[in-house]
Amino acid sequence: EDQVTQSPEALRLQEGESSSLNCSYTVSGLRGLFWYRQDPGKGPEFLFTLYSAGEEKEKERLKATLTKKESFLHITAPKPEDSATYLCAVQALSGGYNKLIFGAGTRLAVHP
Amino acid sequence: NAGVMQNPRHLVRRRGQEARLRCSPMKGHSHVYWYRQLPEEGLKFMVYLQKENIIDESGMPKERFSAEFPKEGPSILRIQQVVRGDSAAYFCASSPTGGPGSYEQYFGPGTRLTVT
Questions:
Q1: Do B45 and A101 touch (CB under 8 A)?
Q2: B107 vs A34: CB contact, 8 Å cut-off?
Q3: Backbone angles phi, psi at A45, to 5 degrees
Q4: pLDDT, tens digit, 9 for 90 and up, residues B2-33
Q5: Closest partner residue to B105 among A42, A100, A104, by Cβ?
Q6: Min Cα separation B95/chain A (Å)
Q7: How many Å apart are CA A21 and CA A25, to the nearest integer?
Q8: Subunit contact A100:B106, Cβ cutoff 8 A
Q9: pLDDT tens-digit profile of A12-63?
């Protein structure tokens, strides 16, 4: 069964304290891995897509990397406005359809 | 704003009533997906539609739930005879047809359904 596990569940950082969020996945064949940001009461906001092991994408203080079994979202020198829930999702090749399988998310709180 | 639009944003229904949730995809997108987020749980896929076709409904409950995406107008998620367990946030997402980024899904703000 296709599955996505995110860790930690919650993370508290001081402003400027860099860290990484983990997303491990089990999927029969990976079409793509996606990172989203979700603020309270809002819909997920698309951040990155990664398609193959070794791929990296960057956006401002965020950098996403991908291996054959997991992905990391690195946050460099975070600011309070980076506080949100970060969601990881995969699309599997099996079934031929486009549904996203989400992890439970990591709740990030960045304190000044 | 050419983003995914959902309405209503908040919907309150009594047990046994019907709920209709609407979704207009981003301009140029012809694929629509519905997801449900229960309190303290992750997003779960419900259904994937293209115009006038249901492509994958493997995540839809067998009873009371239906979805459509007509040739004209928004996609509709319909819940008949709502129960308290249907209280959740329902999100719609859309993606373009083919080409670069065609697998990326862009989400709307969601409809928060409360069943009293």
A1: yes
A2: no
A3: -110, 125
A4: 799 999 999 999 999 999 999 999 998 889 99
A5: A100
A6: 10
A7: 13
A8: no
A9: 999 999 999 999 999 888 889 999 999 999 999 999 999 999 999 999 999 9
| CB nearest B48 (choices: A36, A46, A99) | A99
Measure CB to CB from residue A49 to each of B48, B104, B110 and give the nearest one.
B104
Closest chain B C-alpha to A76 CA, distance in angstroms = 25
DSSP assignments along chain A, one per residue: --EEEEE-SEEEEETT--EEEEEEEE-SSEEEEEEEEE-TTS--EEEEEE-STT-EEEETTEEEEE-SSEEEEEE-S--GGG-EEEEEEEEESGGG----EE---EEEEEE-
Joined tokens for residue A10: 């919650």
Q: What is the pLDDT of residue B102?
A: 65
